[in-house]
Amino acid sequence: MAGPGTPAARWKRHIVRQLRQRDRTQKALFLELVPAYNCLLEKAELLDKFSERLQPEPNDVTPATHQGPWDKDSGPGSDQAPSLATLRVKWQEKEEGLRLECGEMAYQVVEKSAALGALELKLQERQSRLAELEARVAQLREARAQQAGQVAELQARNAERRAAYEALRANTGLQEETLRGLQEQARDLLERLVQRKARAAAERNLRNERRERAKQAQVSQELKKAARRTVSISESQNTLGSGIKEGAEASALAPAPEPESLEREACEKWKRPFRSASATSLTLSRCVDVVKGLLDFKKRRGHSIGGASEQRYQSIPVCMVARLPTRAQDVLDAHLSEVSAVCFGPSSSLLATGGADHLIHLWNVVGGRLEANQTLEGAGGSITSVEFDPSGSQVLAATYNRAAQLWKVGEAQSKETLSGHKDKVTAAKFKLTKHQAVTGSRDRTVKEWDLGRAYCSRTINVLSYCNDVVCGDHIIISGHNDQKIRFWDSRGPHCTQVIPVQGRVTSLSLSHDQLHLLSCSRDDTLKVIDLRVSNIRQVFRADGFKCGSDWTKAVFSPDRSYALAGSWDGALYIWNVDTGKLESSLRGPHCAAINAVAWCYSGSHVVSVDQARKVVLWH
């Protein structure tokens, strides 16, 4: 017999613990099966009791009359004990079979229950998924209903707009027909006017020819009369004087011929042979002809209508030595928003600033301070460029409103509007000849303007956006977004030269002697181009210098000794053009990117403007 400390006892206790643990863990899973299994056990016990009741007691004697068929096999000497044992064995076998079947059925019930639980879980998952899908379908139906309503509204709006478009189209057709009629009338009127002018010119020419013939006939008759008689020296002098006087009167009435024809006629008259009765009459006739020709030629020269020379501005006096700025003298919040353009007038005492608030302010530089002078109104968009003409009497500004505006100093409202660009105008500059200007735009065009008639005299198509332009003698230089500087001859239709630079060109500045060009680009460098050899002479860069925008402006000093530009961090950088080194960098009131700088013509002041509305005067 195994004791409590033997290995067999420990093994049994371990099995009992494991069975109890399994019973505790799996009891919840078989709560429904246990009652069924207990019911089966109760039925088995009931059958067992029934079988025990059916077994005969050993003292009972079975009568011979109740001998069953199983007694036939037993011999006459056999008793009832073997038959009862046999029945009990058979009954036990049947009971064992029933128990095995019950166990198998219980196992199958467990398996079916597990499968049923899994199917119920799947069913719950699918039901939850179905509920989510139904909620999603409901949301989609609501969204579809809303979108259907929006589509109906849009269709109604489109129908209204289509009707309005058809009405506008019909109205446009009527207006086009009216315009064509007016154009035809204008052409007819122009043709009539040209015909009338041609007839008037022909009649005038005919009258002039008749007068000229009559005068020539009169002069010839007088010469013939003079040639028939012989005169003395005193008489010849009087006759010469009268001839000269008559010739002058005739020349005053006759139309003035061209100088070349007069010179040719004079030479022919000197060579023309005369038949005269005496040498005195020949000399007189020749003198009269020569004097008449000279008087007519002199008068024609005095009233010549040849091509008039272009009127040019007087040159602006520039200082010989510019003074480097060292400190900020005056700081103003000049505009309501970003300030993008600044320019000094020729007198160096008048300053113009333009900003995104559609205003141009004029300032007087008095004693190191900026005093408000005037506000120019009427710009239709943000100001991108501002410039005085060389006389200082007009201000030209480029705007985002696809036009350039022209003001007269002293008048608040705009004098002229130069419209014709299809996109923002980024630069507007005066030419050296009076009443002419040049504009550049983001619509890839550069336009020349006749300011007297506010008329575009020429349009130059370019392959890239134009960011800035400058003008020289018969030359236009434009800087573009495709990293190229282009040169245009005002007297020719095509580009004469292209200089590539590294980076988008933001500004151009031409020296006063028109021999050097300063360009600023988005590769954070300034380049000096020698226009005599069309080559980049110097490249300026510095640690910390960086262009703050696509319209950052850099300028030469008036004496071309320095190059000035503002950086994204509000600092001013000044390079020495002769040495190529950074001369100085100024930091002060600016706390935002500097958009533009200007150096006055006297060389004493510098002004800078930034994106934070500040205008700073440096001295």
From TrEMBL:
Cellular location(s): Cytoplasm, Cytosol
Protein name: Protein Atg16l2
Keywords, comma-separated and alphabetical: Coiled coil, Cytoplasm, Protein transport, Repeat, Transport, WD repeat
Name of the gene encoding the protein in the UniProt record: ATG16L2
Bias kind Basic and acidic residues: ranges: 203-215
Native source organism of the sequence: Microcebus murinus
Record GO biological process: autophagosome assembly; negative stranded viral RNA replication; protein transport
A cellular component term, taken from the record's GO annotations: phagophore assembly site membrane
WD repeats: 332-373, 376-417, 418-459, 556-585
Superkingdom classification of source: Eukaryota
Stretches the record annotates as Disordered: 55-82, 203-244
Biased composition (Polar residues): 231-241
Segments forming domain Autophagy-related protein: 14-205
Family assignment from sequence similarity: Belongs to the WD repeat ATG16 family.
